[in-house]
Write a structure and sequence with these properties.
By secondary structure, the protein is of the alpha+beta class. The protein has helices spanning 22-36, 44-49, 59-74, 84-89, 102-108, 136-153, 250-274, and strands at 2-4, 7-13, 117-120, 123-126, 159-163, 166-170, 179-185, 195-202, 205-211, 216-219, 222-225, 240-247, 279-285, 291-295, 303-305. It is 30% helix and 26% strand. Strand 1 (2-4) and strand 2 form a beta hairpin. Helix 1 (22-36) packs antiparallel against helix 6, helix 3 runs parallel beside helix 7 (250-274) and helix 6 (136-153) crosses helix 7. It is globular. Bound molecules: adenosine-5'-diphosphate and magnesium ion. Residues 137, 210, 254-255, 257-258 line the site of magnesium ion.
Length: 306
Amino acid sequence: MGEAQGTYYMVTYFANDTLVTQNQIDSLLRDFDMSASIWVKNSIITRINNSDPSVIPDKHFTDIFKLAQRVSKVSDGAFDITVGPLVNAWGFGFKNKMNMNDHIVDSLLPLVDYEAVKLVNGMIIKENPDIQIDYNAIAQGYSVDLAGGLLEKYGIENYLVDIGGEVFARGSKPDGSSWVVGIEKPSEDINSGRQLNATIKISDKAVATSGSYRKYYEVDGVRYSHTIDPKTGYPVRHSLLSATVMADSAAVADAYATAFMVMGIEKAKQFIDKNPDIEAYFIYSDTSGNLKVFKTKNLENLIEEQ
Ligand code: ADP
Ligand code: MG
């Protein structure tokens, strides 16, 4: 157990020996932050955001970039790593919140366009130097895959990696049973304790959840979620309260969980219909405010509702 990206991480594995130490995982995650964390002053992402001409993206940076761009394309721009300026302006980045109004949103929107950033011969080219890249919706998932990769390198076949609630599980527990993780129930109040809504069995898959109910702030009774709709420039406000995604990698699951929060329940369901390789579990409120759930067929035997 340790800390990474301002959240906890937990790695559990079963093997006859201590094959991988916490130090190794810590240093792997630290290296990763030096690449992809906007909170680290000299990280590659920070230097790219500052248009530092001498920055050379590393493998972590370019891997995430390619993946993010693919999800952006497939999700028709619902997922967009260039939302950085808006995330900051709305007060979810590292800068102080501006007093937001339509005018500020309109002035920042032209900077949000994933097609205006390209990877050319290993270098990141921004069409406008003010474009700011934000990996927060995918980096946590990616770091889960990284930690998993380290364990596999040491031949560990049964493990669970959990970084801030994004997980990947391989194999099973020593008694042969599946790994099981909880899916939180969206709560009314940011301060209320975490409640379990359901559990999900995982084997050789990643699971990630995005929710509008934990990271938000409220002004005059209106909730502002930290997920921004790249098309409008405003925080999303939907009946969809949380999106849990199961996929082969945690980075992919993480990115789609965010994309679905942007799409909202109807569009997300349509997307799922056309993309059967993605499994999803949505918690949303119906028109009378009751909690409802939707899950893809393959999850029916894996999810147990409480
Ligand atoms: P969580 O799992 O905590 O809900 P997410 O994985 O949904 O977090 O990531 C949310 C973060 O992603 C935001 O704080 C912001 O930095 C960034 N972000 C917000 N909107 C988008 C978007 N439409 N596409 C990509 N990244 C986004
Ligand atoms: Mg995400």
